[in-house]
Amino acid sequence: MTHSNEAKANNTDTNTSPMPQNILTTIQGFIEDLRKDPQGTVKNLQTTAQGIFNESGLLKNEGQGLAGEQAPSFIQNGYLFAGKMRRKAGLAPDSNQPVTFNLLGTPSVLVRGAEGVRYFYDTTKVKRAGAMPAFISGPLFGKGAVHGLDGQEHLDRKNMMVNLAYDDARVEQFKHLVAEETETMLSKWGEQEGNVYDDAAIAYGRAAFRWAGIPVSDEEMEERAAQCSRLLDTFGSPLTNIVAWRERRSLDMWYEQIIAKVRSGEMTVGEDSVVAHLAASDLEDRTAGIELQNLTRPTIAVSRFAAFAAAALVENQEWIERIRHASNGQLIDVPEAIAFAQEIRRTKPFVPMLPATAIVDGEVSGCPIKKGQRVLIDILNTNTGPDWDRPGTFDPSRFLNVDGESIETFVPQGGGNVRTGHRCPGEKIAVTALSVVVAALCRPDVRISDDQEDTTFSWTRMLTRPTTGVRVSR
């Protein structure tokens, strides 16, 4: 995969006042710029934010090494941040020794590797509640979602989510729906040039909404899928984050209304559907709607992996032949396509790191961790660190006939036990969705663009993805 030069180095509450016109105009301008040139707009806003921090002195990095506030470095470097922190600390590339520094005014420790994973996902040592800044957790997960819970409340909610998303029968149902929607996507590519990122988001969204049993029109499914995709494209930057909040607010209301309509009898759904089970829960309408969103929107986010997979296939042509031969035209349960999907998830994780807060004194690899200290798990460099054989080599065969969840240092969607820890219950669905599109991209009549701009991405952008979304045709 070709890295960019950067990598190489309106709905309002009724009890609130109307939004000032100048702010509203600014937001509308952001949205329009993002639709026309999302990559360029995000880059410009990141530069602006960095300048504000530098000039204000509020986040001034005083001293050498890791002294001072490191938030400006994180904003500037994105996925490269953890590696830069380790180099500044003088650590060897093959060392899993933790690094300490200040982030957003809080003493923090960055961990990675097997020992780091065991510590970070041990719920007797760390908690999630309040660890992630609200400007990130709000649009990404929603208030009251399972991601920010701890203790018995987390276990109860997590078990409900696992029963709905991790169950083999439900995953099997999703397989056929996503294959059907992918075939529709392929048909459209025969009529006009497609875009893997945009088109997979629609296919995944339609499959996810159908799987959940949400009875809405084709037009609304596609509109909401595109809205979910915009949210994910904008939440990672401090200034575009306002757009993500706008989309989140609209989506929250939509999902909440679905739950309310099912409960009132206004909307009829299948009695064993995901939406029916959530409507039958004791969660309030808003929280049940947020969890329904968290069971569908992340599937749409897999379109980011699909774009990376398309670009990786261009640069690993031998895998196109292997997958094509193994699939024999089928899209479901192709071992080589699944292995390719897992290698994409290993090398291009959704986020670079995740936070928690230590609830007791402890240590990782001899590094003391104090109660109240922020703990960060280095997702990217755990997935590609020294615990792996040839970690820097793109090799899907490492996942052939291997259960990815059994690998302790493979944490693209969390780690630990899926019921008791913070491993994502939708991981099987994510791998299924990605592997189906990988198999589709390997069909003989599919042409993936090999232009450099289609295989270029920036590690400093969050969330990163191939710049164009990767163009494709038949």
UniProtKB/TrEMBL annotation:
InterPro entries: Cyt_P450 (IPR001128), Cyt_P450_sf (IPR036396). It holds the Pfam family p450. One of its GO terms (biological process) is sterol metabolic process. Residues 1-21 are annotated as: Disordered. The keyword Oxidoreductase applies. Its cofactor is heme. One of its GO terms (molecular function) is iron ion binding. Its EC number is 1.11.2.4. It is an enzyme of class 1 (oxidoreductase). Coiled coil: none annotated. Keywords: Heme, Iron, Metal-binding, Monooxygenase, Oxidoreductase, Peroxidase. Belongs to the cytochrome P450 family. PANTHER family: CYTOCHROME P450 26, LANOSTEROL 14-ALPHA DEMETHYLASE. This is Fatty-acid peroxygenase. The gene is cypC.
